[in-house]
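1st attempt posting a full record on here, be nice pls
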Amino acid sequence: MLKFISFGSGSSGNCYYLATATDGLFVDIGVGLRTLKKHARDYGISLSTVRRILITHDHADHIKSVGAFSHDYNIPVYATEKVHMGIDHNYCVQRKLLNEQKMMLEPGTAVRLGDFLVTPFFVPHDASENMGYKIEVDGTVFVIMTDAGSVTEEMKGYIAEANYLVIEANHDIEMLQGGPYPQYLKDRILSPNGHLSNKDCGQVLAENMTERLKHVWLCHLSEENNHPELARKTVDAILRSYGIIPGKDIQLEVLKRKMPSEVYELE
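the predicted structure (as tokens):
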């Protein structure tokens, strides 16, 4: 049995927890350490059972607390070489990783990390480098792809493999274009290395998901340019136009920006 919790999803901080009966990991630690410890207590999770951290990319909302957590619990941090360099140079990471805590990953190369078989893959974003992760446990395939400006053929292949998928639905295009952001920021978000819209998310899901996909969580929603119900309804409508009925064929949910999710049991 694999358990999944989101402890935060959005520009205020991202952190995702996966655990088996004997092992655990975090994908990103961009929430405050005190907040994370409080959430863990509330859920009855001993953070000493977390044995490693995977980092997607070096933006502050994904790495803010990685150094502090790694130091406090003596936890190795897995990322590509470019991402590790970006962490080293990010002023938001006040406690830097020790060299012995830095574990290198190679995109496209699967590595066994305890109970987890982890494969990193490229996701287009304007960071030093950005990784999605395929995480497999006893035949169950969990895939996370966040901060994606566009969707590559490789990413489509991982969507097709997934039983469970966390995928970005960052913004509603009309809200973004009519909103208060300066034009350079709108252009950045809409670029192939920016963030995925609700419509693009729904389209790529409809065109690439298979019958093995059981549950989809929409992540990293913009606070200014999106709304949870709007994101869900947009993706829902696109899936239905392809004959895919959320609630029947798959489960579709939106992860909250600042609040932890429920505990999901993935089979």
